[in-house]
Prior knowledge:
0% of the residues lie in helices and 50% in strands. It has strands spanning 8-10, 16-21, 27-32, 37-40, 45-46, 55-56, 64-66, 70-81, 89-94, 98-111, 120-129, 138-139, 148-161, 163-171, 184-185, 190-198. A hairpin with a 5-residue loop joins β1 and β2. 25% of the residues are buried.
Amino acid sequence: KTTGVTPGTYGGTGNAVTITVDATGRLSLASVAAAPIIRQHFVDVAMINTASQLQNWFPTLGNVTVATGTVYYVDARLYLLDTATSHTVSLSVGGTAVVDWYNLQHFASTLANTTTPTSASSTTGGWSGPVTPISTAKVATVAGTTGHFFIQVQGLIAFAAGGTVRPAFSVSAIGAPVSGGVQNIKKGTYWSMSPVSANTANAIGPWGT
C-alpha cells in the first residue's frame, strides 16, 4: 500500500509491467506482453515482372503502423520463386515512419534452379543506419541463375516518429521463370515486428554492474 500517489495505471512501452494504484492506495502489478505485428502469405502471390522495380512483400495490406519513440524487433522471411536469368535480390523498407536508427542482419539461401529445391548456397550481410537510409535498396543475395530464394531478416529498428512501414524488394533482372514454375512471392513469407522499448532506453530487465 502507498500514500501520496494519484490513483491510476503506470507502465512502460513494449514488454513491460504496469502498476495500478487504486483509490485506497493499494498496488497491483500486471505483465503487459505486447503482441507482435505480423503479416504473412498463406497462398502464393504473383510478382511484378519488371527488373529493378521495388515491390511490396505484401501487394495488399502491405503497410503497418508503428509508434513514435519505439524500438521494434524484426523477424522476417521472404521466399521467392522467380527467374532462371542471372540476377540478385535487394531489400528495402519504405513508409512514412521516421527511422532514428536501425541494425539488421540478412541471411540469404539460394536453392537449385528447379521447382523442387535440392541444394543451396548462402550469404549473410549487415544492414544498418542512419548513415544509409533504410529505404535505400540493399543487395541481399549473390548473383546467380537460381530460381529459389529464402531471405531472412532479423534485428532492431528505432522510430523517431510513428507512421507506416512497408517492406519491399526488387530483382535486378527478369526473364523466363524456372522450368515448370511461376514467378511468385511464395506462401510462408512473413514480416513480424514486436515493440521492445522506448528508443531512449539503454536496458530492459535487471542489468547491473
